[in-house]
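Supplementary Note 3. Input sequence used for the single-chain structure prediction.
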Amino acid sequence: MHSSSQITPRCLINRDGRLDYYESFLSEPDVWLNKLENQLKWRQDTITMFGKTHPIPRLQAWYGWPEATYTYSRIKLKPNKWTANLLALKRICEKFAEASFQGVLCNLYRDGRDYAALHSDNEPELGERPVIASLSLGAERKFKLRHSDGEIVEIWPKSGSLIVMSGRLQECWKHELPKSLKIKDIRLNLTFRPIIYQGLWLPT
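The predicted structure, written as discrete structure tokens, is reproduced below.
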């Protein structure tokens, strides 16, 4: 990992929320990609839309403290126990995001056919105006944000980069990872998140 003196963020959104981009956050991103791809407990869940059930177009794994159950799109994720590597990444992401995280959603996009549709991370267990730290490894792919008034911001996060979303960003913006058939390599994304359990923040 780099020292803090080597990392300078760029503020790419500062309207109705904030997005900071740390381009050179992790050293040796390929090493981290290999570790996490092989160590994490990947699963493919299904989602029901308009009465039809489909596999979600990516693999995922949820890690966190024992009480940190997370639900989105009617998919209920019970946490796997933190691994040493995820805990190490969590600690350094907390330092730069100036926030505490109780869980991490790991997404594995096997190639450009896997994607994430337009959405906001606004589930109740994340609390109001959550700070979310998104770490990218592997293939560079378009990360697209759309404001409620139609403004669009596009970012191509480099492998080893970190995005920190905060303030009203999840209220006013939605984001997606569009499909791209030109992409043949994998992308692994870790989104560290705060979790409220029974009205209280979980331990860090």
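Residues 13 and 19 are 5 Å apart (CA to CA). The longest strand covers residues 103-109.
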